[in-house]
Amino acid sequence: MIAPAQAQLQKPDTTIRTEEVATGVYVLYGNGGNIGASVGADGVFLIDDQYAPLTPAINAAVAKLSPEPVRFVLNTHWHGDHTGGNENYAKAGAVIIAQDNVRARMSVPQVMEFIKRTEPAASPAALSLVNFNDTVTLHLNGDEVRAVHVARAHTDGDAVIHFRVANVIHAGDTYFNELYPFIDVDSGGSIEGSLAAVDTMLALADDKTRIIPGHGKVSGRAGLEAFRKMLVETSGRVRALKDAGKTVEEIVEAAPNADYDKTWSWSFINAERYVRMLYASMEKP
After folding, report:
1. For residue 58, what is the domain's CATH number?
2. Nearest to 175 by CA among 188, 187, 158, 163
3. What range defines the domain where residue 166 resides?
4. CA distances from 271 to 1, 4, 42 (A)
5. Which backbone phi and psi does 188 adopt, to 5 degrees?
């Protein structure tokens, strides 16, 4: 997700809050996408790294968990609130890993018409050194960590990461817990792909699995199931009205998701923007 007021989310003095999710696996909350961290004898493995000015605060939080250096950073997708620290970590010696489309998008300017934003190309140092198409597996800190590409979900380069031993999933922005998601249609995202990504994670999860969303609090399987139910019902209502010949303006005016709007709407993806986003996804081939 790219935040609407990005400058306000890059304060270098931001406090990073740490929560243990499973033995040796943590989530770091700050300003930007939730960071996953695996710590152990093999070093520190991070999933995403928020914004560049936050790197010192993130490092201070990680240092309380492990004296070992950050060896790997895996990006869940290309957005700057998940990849902004790449250059800092690469220059410090970490290996950046991402799905093929992440490097491709970060290599050139990106126009996000839906939110009227243009992102410049990242510096060469911020680009991933190791890329994968469908899957990649890391064996470290006593775990088997598998990243799986989920196509056309939040973007076209999303990866969900499964810690098989710890029984933890990092969903990136394919999961916003108790929040309407941002589906970046301009970056290849879609509602159909978003639902498929959720189904991929549900197939990996059991009742004890802990799931780190891209935004929101850590949940279990029940939280992800509630998110899926919301996606199915809200997108189904918008599609039914669209198929009946209603324009996007008429659908916005009808407020088809008023029951969900009360609790799932938020500052970035409010009720109106969510309807427009779903409609835009349904317009794409």
Report:
1. 3.60.15.10
2. 158
3. 6-222
4. 17, 16, 45
5. 90, 10
Q: Does residue 273 lie in a domain region?
A: no
Confidence (pTM): 0.95
| Burial classification of residue 269, based on how many CB atoms lie within 10 Å of its CB (0-12 exposed, 13-18 middle, 19 or more buried) | buried
pLDDT digits (tens, 9 = 90+) for 4-48: 434 334 455 678 999 999 999 999 999 999 999 999 999 999 999
Residue 279 CA to residue 82 CA, distance in Å, equals 26
Q: Is residue 53 part of a domain?
A: yes
Q: Is residue 180 part of a domain?
A: yes
Q: Where are the alpha helices (DSSP H) in the chain?
A: 55-63, 80-83, 86-91, 100-106, 191-204, 221-243, 248-254, 258-264, 271-283
Burial bucket for residue 51 (CB in 10 Å: 0-12, 13-18, 19+) = buried
Within-domain flag for 69 = yes
Total number of domains constituting the chain: 1
C-alpha–C-alpha distance, residues 38 and 18, integer Å: 12
CA–CA distance, 35 with 172 (Å, rounded to integer):
9
DSSP state of 128: -
Q: Tell me how far apart the alpha carbons of residues 170 and 84 are, in angstroms, rounded to a whole number.
A: 18
- Whose structure tokens read 């410049």? 120
Contacts of 14 (CB under 8 A, 6+ apart): 30, 31, 54, 57
Pairing outcome for strands 143-150 and 70-74: unpaired
